[in-house]
Amino acid sequence: MQRPRILVVDDEPQIAEVVEAYLEREGMIVEVCASVAAALAALERVAPDLLVLDITLPDGSGLAVLRVASSSSRRIPTIVLTARATEADRVVGLELGADDYVVKPFSPRELVARVRALLRRTSEGMPPGGVRPSRRRRVGDLEIDYDFHEVSVAGLPAGLTATEFRILALLAENPGEVFTRAHLLDRLGDDGAIFERTLDRHINNLRKKIEKDPRKPEHVVTVYGVGYKMRKL
Amino acid sequence: MRRSDESGHELGNLLAVALANVEGMLDGLVEPSPPKLEALADALRRARDIVQRGESG
């Protein structure tokens, strides 16, 4: 992997300098900004691989930067620096799409460990040179984009829910392999969001969105008495 | 409430400055020069003042 570029946004120079020294020791290229305006400009100029972002900045909220970093076509993995864990939960867990957080006052060693972990997570499958291959899979008229969590049917977006996407992604990665309900739930239900009685409903909804005739599915087919599989084309 | 929010934020920042710099010195990334040590002492004094204001207020 090429040297990762990290954009650090923090208005306290005495913190930013130390963070910069730690990240540079790890072989990373670091750019430091101290305001929302400078960070927005740097996002364009630097095209960072990862963003370390303080939420409280002198000219506004770091959330404005996060919004841009999360919504650009090339989403930038972000670690938020925050004064309160409750605020961090909201930012990371819900609407704004940060990947991780560190609560102030933080240890720079811990921050470096989190930066490395997030880079590792986001660069999985990345070849030397750092250019990520497009993680797409085409099955007949279906196109599954694993990076953007999007599915299109004959070029039109299918509008799958997160659960429907996870089911389809898992089946499509293993075409022809039969998944029992228990196996599917085991692979998908780590957060308890899917139960056996709702799995069939998710599958039915998925079929309505991706199959020409949901009653005669061509992609996600039922193997009677066993479970489901993605038809191998 | 608002004032204690601001104090908490300020306190967090001052302690972050102190922790980052002391760890940096231990790891050989920050030089323990007199001006740097003076800046750290200043951050800790300001943190102390915030804590004392909170206790008296």
SSE map:
The complex is a heterodimer of chains A (about 230) and B (about 55).
Chain A: E1 5-9, H1 13-25, E2 29-33, H2 36-46, E3 50-54, E4 56-57, E5 60-61, H3 63-71, E6 78-82, H4 85-93, E7 100-103, H5 108-122, E8 136-139, E9 142-145, E10 150-153, E11 156-157, H6 162-173, E12 179-180, H7 181-188, H8 196-210, E13 220-223, E14 227-230
Parallel strand pairs in A: 1-2, 1-3, 3-6, 6-7
Antiparallel strand pairs in A: 4-5, 8-9, 9-10, 10-11, 12-14, 13-14
Chain B: H1 2-26, H2 34-56
Helix pairs in contact in B: 1-2
Shape of chain B: elongated
Strand content of chain B: under 5%
Question: Can you tell me the residue ranges of chain B where pLDDT is under 50 for at least 5 consecutive residues?
Answer: none
SS class of chain B: mainly alpha
Tally of helical segments of chain A: 8
Multimeric organization: heterodimer
CATH fold-type name of the largest domain in chain A? Rossmann fold
Mean of pLDDT of chain A: 83
User: How helix-rich are the residues of chain B, as a percent range?
Assistant: over 70%
Biggest β-sheet strands, sense, barrel of chain B: none
Work out the count of structural domains of chain B: 1
SS-based structural class of chain A?
A: alpha/beta
Q: Based on CA inertia axes, which overall geometry of chain A fits?
A: elongated
**Total count of helical runs of at least 4 residues of chain B:** 2
Architecture of the largest domain in chain A in CATH? Answer: 3-Layer(aba) Sandwich
The greatest interface here is: A-B, 17 and 19 residues
Strand percentage of chain A: 15-25%
Describe the structure.
The complex is a heterodimer of chains A (233) and B (57). Chain A is α/β, with parallel strands linked by helices. Chain A folds into two domains: 5-122, Rossmann fold (3-Layer(aba) Sandwich), CATH 3.40.50; 136-230, Winged helix-like DNA-binding domain superfamily/Winged helix DNA-binding domain (Arc Repressor Mutant, subunit A, Orthogonal Bundle), CATH 1.10.10. Chain A has helices at residues 13-25, 36-46, 63-71, 85-93, 108-122, 162-173, 181-188, 196-210, and strands spanning 5-9, 29-33, 50-54, 56-57, 60-61, 78-82, 100-103, 136-139, 142-145, 150-153, 156-157, 179-180, 220-223, 227-230. In chain A, the strands form four sheets. A five-stranded parallel β-sheet of chain A has the order 2-1-3-6-7, sandwiched between helices. A four-stranded antiparallel β-sheet of chain A has the order 8-9-10-11, covered by helices on one side. The longest helix of chain A is centred in the middle third of the chain and has 15 residues, at 108-122. Chain A is elongated. Chain A starts with a strand and ends with a strand. Chain B is an all-alpha fold and 57 residues long. Chain B has one domain. Chain B has helices spanning 2-26, 34-56. In chain B, helix 1 packs antiparallel against helix 2 (34-56). Classes of the chains: A alpha/beta (233), B mainly alpha (57). Chain A binds chain B through residues 12, 14-15, 18-19, 21-22, 25, 56, 83-84, 104-109, and chain B through 8-9, 12-21, 23-24, 27, 29-30, 39, 43.
